[in-house]
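Regression test case RT-17, inverse folding.

Input:
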Protein backbone atom coordinates (compact mmCIF):
# COMPACT_ATOMS: atom_id res chain seq x y z
CA UNK A 1 0.00 0.00 0.00
CA UNK A 2 1.28 3.49 -0.75
CA UNK A 3 2.38 5.53 2.22
CA UNK A 4 0.14 8.36 3.30
CA UNK A 5 0.49 11.63 5.23
CA UNK A 6 3.27 11.58 7.77
CA UNK A 7 4.68 8.28 6.52
CA UNK A 8 5.13 9.86 3.10
CA UNK A 9 6.87 12.82 4.75
CA UNK A 10 9.24 10.45 6.56
CA UNK A 11 9.86 8.58 3.28
CA UNK A 12 10.76 11.91 1.63
CA UNK A 13 13.26 12.65 4.43
CA UNK A 14 14.79 9.20 3.94
CA UNK A 15 15.09 9.71 0.18
CA UNK A 16 16.77 13.09 0.72
CA UNK A 17 19.17 11.34 3.10
CA UNK A 18 19.96 8.78 0.41
CA UNK A 19 20.77 11.60 -2.04
CA UNK A 20 23.17 13.22 0.46
CA UNK A 21 24.73 9.80 1.10
CA UNK A 22 25.34 9.33 -2.64
CA UNK A 23 27.14 12.70 -2.60
CA UNK A 24 29.19 11.47 0.39
CA UNK A 25 27.71 14.22 2.59
CA UNK A 26 27.16 11.84 5.48
CA UNK A 27 26.44 14.52 8.10
CA UNK A 28 23.57 15.99 6.06
CA UNK A 29 22.32 12.48 5.31
CA UNK A 30 22.24 11.73 9.04
CA UNK A 31 20.26 14.94 9.62
CA UNK A 32 17.65 13.74 7.11
CA UNK A 33 17.42 10.30 8.71
CA UNK A 34 16.99 12.01 12.09
CA UNK A 35 14.16 14.10 10.58
CA UNK A 36 12.53 10.87 9.39
CA UNK A 37 12.81 9.37 12.89
CA UNK A 38 11.15 12.44 14.41
CA UNK A 39 8.21 12.13 12.01
CA UNK A 40 7.94 8.37 12.61
CA UNK A 41 8.14 8.83 16.39
CA UNK A 42 5.33 11.38 16.17
CA UNK A 43 3.20 8.95 14.19
CA UNK A 44 3.75 6.15 16.67
CA UNK A 45 2.86 8.48 19.56
CA UNK A 46 -0.38 9.62 17.89
CA UNK A 47 -3.68 7.77 18.09
CA UNK A 48 -4.10 7.70 14.29
CA UNK A 49 -3.98 4.41 12.44
CA UNK A 50 -1.25 3.72 9.90
CA UNK A 51 0.38 0.81 8.09
CA UNK A 52 2.57 -0.50 10.90
CA UNK A 53 4.53 -2.90 8.66
CA UNK A 54 5.37 -0.18 6.11
CA UNK A 55 6.41 2.22 8.87
CA UNK A 56 8.52 -0.49 10.51
CA UNK A 57 10.33 -1.14 7.21
CA UNK A 58 10.88 2.59 6.70
CA UNK A 59 12.31 2.93 10.22
CA UNK A 60 14.54 -0.10 9.59
CA UNK A 61 15.85 1.41 6.33
CA UNK A 62 16.62 4.70 8.08
CA UNK A 63 18.53 2.90 10.85
CA UNK A 64 20.53 0.88 8.31
CA UNK A 65 21.30 3.98 6.24
CA UNK A 66 22.30 5.92 9.35
CA UNK A 67 24.59 3.04 10.35
CA UNK A 68 26.25 3.19 6.92
CA UNK A 69 26.84 6.93 7.39
CA UNK A 70 28.27 6.43 10.87
CA UNK A 71 30.64 3.78 9.49
CA UNK A 72 31.88 6.26 6.88
CA UNK A 73 32.37 8.89 9.60
CA UNK A 74 34.13 6.34 11.86
CA UNK A 75 31.41 6.77 14.51
CA UNK A 76 31.54 3.08 15.30
CA UNK A 77 29.63 3.20 18.58
CA UNK A 78 26.74 5.02 16.87
CA UNK A 79 26.80 2.58 13.94
CA UNK A 80 26.55 -0.29 16.40
CA UNK A 81 23.60 1.40 18.12
CA UNK A 82 21.75 1.91 14.81
CA UNK A 83 22.25 -1.74 13.82
CA UNK A 84 21.21 -2.99 17.24
CA UNK A 85 17.96 -1.02 16.94
CA UNK A 86 17.17 -2.94 13.73
CA UNK A 87 18.15 -6.33 15.15
CA UNK A 88 16.04 -5.64 18.25
CA UNK A 89 12.94 -5.55 16.00
CA UNK A 90 13.87 -8.47 13.74
CA UNK A 91 17.03 -10.27 12.57
CA UNK A 92 18.55 -8.57 9.53
CA UNK A 93 21.59 -9.60 7.46
CA UNK A 94 22.65 -6.02 6.65
CA UNK A 95 22.34 -4.97 10.29
CA UNK A 96 24.47 -7.89 11.50
CA UNK A 97 27.05 -7.26 8.78
CA UNK A 98 27.29 -3.51 9.44
CA UNK A 99 27.44 -4.06 13.19
CA UNK A 100 30.23 -6.61 12.70
CA UNK A 101 32.09 -4.12 10.51
CA UNK A 102 31.76 -1.39 13.17
CA UNK A 103 32.90 -3.74 15.92
CA UNK A 104 35.87 -4.96 13.88
CA UNK A 105 36.95 -1.41 13.05
CA UNK A 106 36.47 -0.22 16.63
CA UNK A 107 38.70 -3.09 17.71
CA UNK A 108 38.20 -2.87 21.45
CA UNK A 109 38.32 -5.78 23.86
CA UNK A 110 35.60 -8.23 22.93
CA UNK A 111 34.79 -6.42 19.69
CA UNK A 112 36.45 -8.98 17.41
CA UNK A 113 34.63 -11.85 19.11
CA UNK A 114 31.32 -9.97 18.87
CA UNK A 115 32.00 -9.20 15.20
CA UNK A 116 32.51 -12.90 14.45
CA UNK A 117 29.26 -13.76 16.27
CA UNK A 118 27.41 -11.12 14.19
CA UNK A 119 28.84 -12.52 10.95
CA UNK A 120 27.84 -16.03 11.98
CA UNK A 121 24.29 -14.81 12.64
CA UNK A 122 24.20 -13.05 9.26
CA UNK A 123 25.29 -16.28 7.55
CA UNK A 124 22.64 -18.27 9.42
CA UNK A 125 20.00 -15.86 8.09
CA UNK A 126 21.37 -15.93 4.54
CA UNK A 127 23.88 -18.73 3.86
CA UNK A 128 24.36 -17.50 0.28
CA UNK A 129 25.17 -13.94 1.34
CA UNK A 130 28.10 -12.39 -0.48
CA UNK A 131 28.48 -9.79 2.28
CA UNK A 132 30.03 -12.17 4.80
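Golden output:
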Amino acid sequence: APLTGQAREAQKCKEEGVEFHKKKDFVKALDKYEDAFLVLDGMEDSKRSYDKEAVSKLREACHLNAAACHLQLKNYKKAIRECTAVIHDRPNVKAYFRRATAREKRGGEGDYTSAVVDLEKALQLDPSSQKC
